[in-house]
Specification:
The complex is a heterodimer of chains A (228) and B (126). With 228 residues, chain A is mostly helical. Chain A has 8 helices and no strands. In chain B, strands 1-5-11-10-7-8 form a 6-stranded mixed β-sheet, with no helix packed on it. The longest helix of chain B has 18 residues. Classes of the chains: A mainly alpha (228), B mainly beta (126).
């Protein structure tokens, strides 16, 4: 049964799937480390910082840790069939747009949440989708665009209606979708050799950039009228 | 399990930072006010905007006595489109001097909200 094989590979050392857990760990280490440093030197002086932003920062850091390892998995095999590449571009674009859009939308409003979510979603969607050519790129582009707007819109609509619980639900479901994507990539590539071996520099770099950008935007970025 | 240590560290970080960062914020809003006397017998209430909601978001008024509700300058966007479904009220209050006026004819607790249901509160009629 391939799901069982996939889970075995996640604990293995030979294929890229065995590096997914470590990629999550490094992403969390870098993001929480950066946050801890910034908090100690600067952010703790902001009034009501933890009650106001803590919950959303926590979930957005977890989100990046869940999303970024899929980039590593896609890069390891590089070329996919059109159908697989489209699914990869669509899934990563949608999830990478929806989650940041949702959390920035919760603190900065719908317009800026959408802009931020679309930016991250389109970037990751296109990057991952190009593994199968123009169709994957288009899927990534469209999914990132849609995910960013939908995430921010959902957050703003739920401001007075269990926003925090909705954030947890959205994160859990998104994590399951990304896990399913990892499994799909494994199924599609289990007979193929690994094309690229790389260290964790890219994961560390992207975690650092995305976390720093998100923190800056969330705390010092522009806000919509309702959040001013 | 070859990734056991990594999984343990992930769990530790999520729990550790989760406890620190997930401290809940204070209650959004909720002071109750009794509608103030305006001209004549009218009860006047002015709502503002605080913590992403109407403030105060619990308003107490007397039955069979006209109520006039204003929204001050801090209220913006769709929050200015004010509704009380139980009294058939839906009006866009474009300026702070605009108001809605109605006479509550039944006692109880009634929901007021913006037209999209994002800002909400309770009108208590005694």
């Amino acid at each position: 049964m391939s799901l069982k094989q996939f889970l075995n590979e996640v604990n293995g050392k030979e294929r890229v799937e065995g590096e997914l857990i470590k990629a999550i760990l490094y992403s969390l280490l870098v993001s929480f480390g950066l946050f801890a440093i910034l908090y100690y030197f600067s952010l703790r002086h902001i009034e009501d910082f933890i009650p106001k932003y803590g919950f959303f920062i926590f979930l957005v850091i977890l989100s990046y840790a869940v999303i970024l390892p899929s980039i590593r998995q896609v890069r390891a095999y590089q070329n996919f069939a059109c159908m697989s590449g489209m699914m990869i571009g669509m899934t990563t674009g949608m999830i990478a747009g929806f989650l940041p859009g949702f959390f920035i939308g919760s603190t900065n409003g719908m317009f800026w949440g959408s802009v931020f979510g679309m930016g991250i979603g389109i970037f990751i969607g296109v990057w991952n989708g190009k593994c199968c050519g123009i169709m994957g790129v288009m899927e990534g582009l469209m999914a990132g665009f849609m995910g960013g707007i939908m995430g921010a819109m959902t957050a703003v609509m739920m401001i007075n209606d269990n926003l925090r619980i909705a954030g947890v639900v959205v994160f859990v479901i998104s994590s399951l979708i990304v896990f399913a994507l990892n499994y799909m990539i494994y199924k599609e590539t289990k007979e193929l050799p690994r094309e690229r071996t790389e260290d964790y520099t890219l994961i560390v770099f992207l975690s650092l950039i995305f976390t720093a950008l998100t923190l800056f935007f969330m705390i010092y970025g522009p806000r919509s009228v309702l959040f001013a | 399990m070859k990734n056991g240590f990594a999984i343990f560290m992930i769990f530790l970080m999520i729990v550790g930072f989760g406890v620190i960062l997930m401290k809940s914020s204070g209650n959004a809003s909720g002071n109750a006010v009794i509608g103030g006397e305006g001209s004549g017998n009218t009860q006047e209430v002015t709502l503002s905007f605080k913590n992403y909601n109407y403030y105060p978001n619990t308003v107490t008024v007397n039955v069979n006595q006209p109520v006039r509700i204003y929204l001050d300058n801090s209220v913006g966007g769709c929050y200015r489109s004010f509704t009380i479904r139980d009294f058939g009220i839906a009006k866009y209050l474009s300026t702070p001097s605009d108001y809605i006026e109605f006479t509550p004819t039944k006692t109880g607790s009634f929901r007021f909200a913006c037209s999209m249901g994002m800002g909400t509160g309770t009108l208590i009629v005694k």
